[in-house]
Amino acid sequence: MSFDPPDKKQIIARLCELINEAVANGFPAERKRELFEVVMRYDIWRIAIGNDPPSKIEPFIIQFKEGTLPIRCRPRTYAPAEREWMKEFNESLAKLGWVYRNEASRWASPARPVKKPGKTGGLRQAVDFRRPNTQVLSVAGSMPSLSTRLHHTKNKKHRQTVDFLKSFWQMALAKVSKESQSYMTEDGVLTPTRLQQGSVDSSIHFQQSIEKIMREANLLYEHVLAWIDDLLIYADTIDEFLSVLDRVYCTLEKNGLFLGLNKICLYTTEAKWCGRIIKEDGIAYDHEKIQTLIDLPEPKTAAELQQFLCAAGWMRNALVDFARVAAPLQARLQTALEGTKRTKHVAARVAIDFTAEERKSFGQVKQLLAKSATLVTPDDSDELILMTDASEAGWGIIVTAVEDWDPATSITKQQHQLVHCMSGTFKGAAQHWSVSEKEAFPIIKAVTDLDYLLIRSKGFHLYSDHRNLIFIFAPGDEIKKHVRGKLQRWSLKLNELRYTIEHISGEDNVWADMASRWACIELPRETTTVNRWQTQDTHVQVELRPLRPDSEWPTEDDIKCAQLATTCTRPLHLEEQPNGLWRDEQNRWWIPEDAEVLLMRLMVIAHCGTSHRGVKVMINHLQEHFHIEKLETKARAFCSRCLLCCHVKGGKIIPRPWGETYRSNERNEALHMDYLFIGDYNGESNYLLVMKDDVSHYCELIECSSANAATAAMAILDWNSRYGMPQLLISDTATHLKNQLLGNCATKLR
């Protein structure tokens, strides 16, 4: 080993302590010597920073946008203690060769002393690179998704966690990029020679560099996971574990990288890594971090509440009830930050005081954290189960894995292991969705957000307690023509997946039902009893017909009178013309919102000028000459009240109800019946009663004066006398009419 003698003794002593801890964690005592030889074989360990050269990884080049000019800050003042600490700190960096004074630098970002978290009260130096970062062309890279990459650690029994000492300082900066990372203190401008934390691409560059060298050594994902400066090493057997350690350490030494000895675990079966506990049978969140959240006092500011909800929300995929329990706290935070910039500094100045309900919710979130579930990563051989449910207020998703699947056993009696859970509330327009759309939404939500779990060769089992979805989302390549609108688009998204969909009763769909119904708390409603409530419509209906003799086209004088008489606030971008009219920057006349008669006359001209134009054509014609606020809304409302358009273009399309499509196998098995309104045909008959056999499509039409149950009953009895009574009557008429119809038939057949 090539360290100085004092460092060498300290490092050897520390490694001996770590090896003893490894034996205590389950490493075989008889192989302790082999572990010692592996860790001592390579010069990669450091206790503190030293004058080691930068790593052998290619120096990083920071690329700026074209035309970028140097950015410099103004001098800052510091407290005496901070000034002394920063002076000593930067002098130590200069002695190591990591920074140098640069009086000719055109760049300078402010350096600030920041207090370290915890009770020690130490300081660290942070450089504010926000302004230079806005001018940098970012590297096209991304961090790995731990939700997918942690699958590689499943069933691995032997693990080690290490981290790099002063990770960014080990990476060299290219000569052309050093000056742009300069920072200013009271003692002058200093230019670093190493990669700086806070620079826009520093984390991505370090991550990609570590992944590159591990990939070249055939270690990445096979035996090593990297998250910036944290490494997770894993293997199946002790022999493989020692061999992997030798390969990892050799790779690090080859590239001139060093590991710290403070945050390291040489051997463990349950590794604490990236806030999680990696076990052989699953992944749980770190109990120490959870306990830290549980021990937090009640928040006194919006910033404290925001930090608590963010930390708890990070673990929500293991908290079945999180959306419902945290709903009062989320609402309280939204109310407290309403109208602000929602930044941490602003939230820190907003004081909050919990109500009894919010205080109860705060305690319930802590209870959930204490009972967070352990998540498993499913194998390709496991059966994946997706259960969804929705209520009036919210939705829930539960994904489980079944290792020993028995097709003959009920889904409720299988041995489930939790993979992922989600829940949420319906907000905005989603609150007014139909029942089928609300029940379908969690399925599409799971397909969109959990595709990394559901896209698999073996497929998955989808269970829903809404029977209609079984037919709407039934697997198949064809487009279901009887499904329209939102549900049709959603069903197409499922075509790319391999799955089976089955119905599960509401009593058995316990977990998903709980997550959906607990996703929102219904607030108590205050009701008032009144004897009678009357409203009076104050809106005056403007009747205009362009073909009337007294009809007049709008003139400039009419527009000017409307502008002078208005009480509405005039938009700021309008300009007054010499003739007294107000126009916008596109030279269009301004039409006030309260000029209803004038606006209606313009609508009539735009709509009836050439036949009856549609909404979009109307808007284009009016926008060409007039400035009208909320024009699209007004044009749609006008067209919806046009009586001629209702007759010519038809009314609102009423889709068939979502339900099972009945198919007959023999004649007269099912009879379809419905009334068709045809208008005033011959002075008496306004309706046609349509009766159709389901198999042969044979139809009979009966004219009648009104749509009533008595006429339908006589028609069915006449059908019975000729063809026999059908087994099933299918109709979408009102329930009370069908009940009266069956009552009349029963009376006649006695």
TrEMBL record:
A Pfam short name: RT_RNaseH
UniProt KW Cytoplasm keyword: no
Keywords attached to this entry: Aspartyl protease, Endonuclease, Hydrolase, Nuclease, Nucleotidyltransferase, Protease, RNA-directed DNA polymerase, Transferase
Domain Integrase catalytic per the UniProt entry, residue ranges: 653-750
GO biological process: DNA integration; proteolysis
Cited InterPro entries: DNA/RNA_pol_sf, Integrase_cat-core, Rev_trsase/Diguanyl_cyclase, RNaseH-like_sf, RNaseH_sf, RT_dom, RT_RNaseH, Viral_Replic_Matur_Polypro
Domain annotation Reverse transcriptase: ranges: 95-278
Record flagged with keyword Oxidoreductase: no
A molecular-function term among this protein's GO annotations: nucleic acid binding
Superkingdom classification of source: Eukaryota
Protein name, as recorded: Reverse transcriptase domain-containing protein
